[in-house]
Specification:
The chain is α+β, with helices and mostly antiparallel strands. 29% of the residues lie in helices and 30% in strands. It is built from 12 helices and 25 strands. Strands 1, 4, 5, 6, 7, 10 and 11 form a 7-stranded mixed beta sheet that branches. Strands 12, 13, 16, 22, 23 and 24 form a 6-stranded mixed beta sheet that branches. A hairpin with a 3-residue loop joins β8 and β9. The longest helix is centred in the middle third of the chain and has 30 residues. The chain is globular, with a radius of gyration of 28 Å. About 12% of the residues have low confidence.
Length: 530
Amino acid sequence: MTDIETRAAPQPLSTDSARKLGGYAVVFNSATRIGAFTESIESDAWINPGDDVLCSYNHDTNNVLGRTRSGTLSLTVDKTGIRYDVTLPDTELGRSVHELTKRGDIYGSSFTFICDEDQWDYSGDIPHRTVTAMRVFELGPVHTPAYPDATVSARAIERGNMTTIDVDAARKALAESQRAEKLAAEIRGVEASGEKRDSEIPEKRAELDAHNHERAASLSAMKSPGERSAIGRKASAGDLLHAKLAESRNLTSAGTAGAFTPAEFSKNFVDLMAPSSVVLSSGVNRVATNASEWKTPVVTSDFTPAFVGELADLPTGGFAAGMLSVKPMKIATAEMLSSEFVNDSDGVSLNAISRSMLRTLALGFDKQALTGVAGADKFAGISNTPGVQTLAVTGEPADLAPFAEAFGMLEDVSATPTIVVMNPARWAQLLGLKDTTGRQLLSAGAGSGTDGVNRSILGVPVKVSPYVDANTILVYDASELYAVIRKDATFETSSDAGFFKDGIGARAIMRAAVAVPNAAAVVKMTIAAA
């Protein structure tokens, strides 16, 4: 289950006689103590500004004050943080919140988010967590702005895989690694020089073994009890790098082979990919499976209901269904890295490599998932799934009418348009659309060009991808689509293949596919020249 976290911004709120309330729910670059670590949020960490966000009182979704989709809540970003302004409803709750804020009884805000990416720094007295990518889905005024309780803090610590004891263990392991690497370099130098110092080499090897032993003990202290039993060999420099990677990338060791399999059946692996993937971040269902094929029923004809009298036979018939089989296909990337590149960077390079590989997989998955054609080792993408609805548009769109038509096509089949995906060039063209008075249609409130851009069309979020043709636009109900992912998704490093080259191999592998059981929940818009 994805960790849901709550943070507070005890900043003063403003309100006026028109029942409008505003304040900062998120404050950037402000380090705050949370349990056993400190935390700050980067200014560009918010990655879902186009999604629907709810404003509620005291985090109770029954106490709705507004939402971005309806236009009663607006969110803006400045150097301080994320500011919200909400038009309070003319209800008992809205009037109460308005009055309590004016009196000063409500004086702060809070927000709920999912952290997609974070970085951990262990150089200080306690670990520091920097949230670099997060999805905000709820915020609002609270009467007691406070940081998370022990339970939430414990989950965040688990994300970082660190406790106060672990910090000491990490520092010790790092120190032992540096000493061991220096000794190993000296031994290689003596052996390469051909000098007759045979008595010196065994002594140095014994010292190196001692450092390896200390490093293994420190690594063991950084792991859970179950993982400690897997460390039954000498720790190498690579082990320390793996451990550092595990802390900051939320991956856990699968055994003594140095392989990293994400916890919770590849959930974390996919979560790390999601920020770079249009499809995964669009809200599609994610299915984790161990099977080589995933099957789901497809209703081809609905039941036929009818009103009946008391004790009369219930109506039957009309229902028909088939079975959709989806085979997750392998997508992978690999590279051989020099030991110097990995070791000299003290493991930071593996963080960069893992991020780059996960991003590459995400983009590769997107390319196939959006427009791919089925083949021997590829699955059919959303736009090429048989049965999707099509809408031909002649000439460059001069207004948003084609989108209204596409949305209506989905609603006609009881689907809800939740996402629009298009090429960046097409989005740029639409941004230039103006109404009869010359105002930008897609700027906030259809105002002037100085207004912020709402990355949505008629309230439906927009995502852009270079893998969608400039003359193709996809509109779909994400709740009707599935990303089927094998649980054996892995990020691995190994020195075995590079033994004679003094290299370390790195690879990332996942098996995935897109399933569209209800093809009518997708509209493929094609734009042709007039």
